[in-house]
Amino acid sequence: MQDLWLLKHDASVADPLADSWLREARSWQAVEGALAYFYVSSSTPPAEEGAAGEWRRLACLQEVPGASAGRVATHHYVVETDVLPGFEDELNTWYAREHLPGLAAVPGTVRAARYIDLAGSPRYYACYDLADPQALGRPEWLAVRATAWSARVRPAFRNTRRTMFASWHARPRPRP
């Protein structure tokens, strides 16, 4: 398990890869919209040479190899959320015992991991590296999302964002 630094960037403002140091980051572009996420594994914050944005430290809580471990992840699905006070223990137990392992076991999932941002909001990040973005519609994925425990925990989510990303390098480029 490895902590990460995350940079969220609005790619409609500027191409962040103009900053050469970002080329080394794992980079993802939202399938819809201009949001881009850049991840760097490091114990210290990346150099802030450009105006791309603010780095957030994400501490790894859990990592589970997926049913498709070893395949190339072409997509990255992220669920970011805060949780109502008093529900954090329930949320963390649910993710650790049922939700993250269940979604990791779905064919098309390369890896599933959870992170916490101790200094900001949203506080929790669930990240799924996918070899097949259609995994989210598979009966196995939908069954994990529809458990009684899921129905009990999900109403405590606040400030939730779900985003599907594609590899930055595979994103469509404007024609000249």
How would you sum up this structure, described in words?
With 176 residues, the chain is α+β, with helices and mostly antiparallel strands. It has a single domain (3-166), classed as 2-Layer Sandwich (Alpha-Beta Plaits). The protein is built from three helices and eight strands, in the order βββββαββααβ. Strands 1-3-2-8-5-7-6-4 form an eight-stranded antiparallel barrel. Strand 2 and strand 3 form a beta hairpin. Helix 1 (88-104) runs antiparallel to helix 2. The longest helix has 17 residues, at 88-104. It is globular. The N and C termini lie far apart (42 Å). Mean pLDDT is 88; it is low at 172-176.
What attributes does this structure have?
single chain, 176 residues, alpha+beta, Alpha-Beta Plaits, 8-stranded antiparallel β-barrel, 3 helices, 8 strands, globular
**Element order, helices and strands?**
EEEEEHEEHHE
Low-confidence stretches: 172-176
Major β-sheet profile: 8 strands, antiparallel, barrel
Return the CATH class.
Alpha Beta
Number of self-contained structural domains? 1
The SS-based structural class is alpha+beta
Using only C-alpha atoms, the radius of gyration works out to: 16 Å
Hey, roughly how much beta strand do the residues contain? 35-45%
Helix fraction by DSSP (H/I, runs of at least 4): 10-25%
Task: Tell me what the CATH architecture is.
Answer: 2-Layer Sandwich
Global outline: globular
> N-to-C terminal Cα separation, in Å?
42 Å
| Mean pLDDT over the full residue set | 88
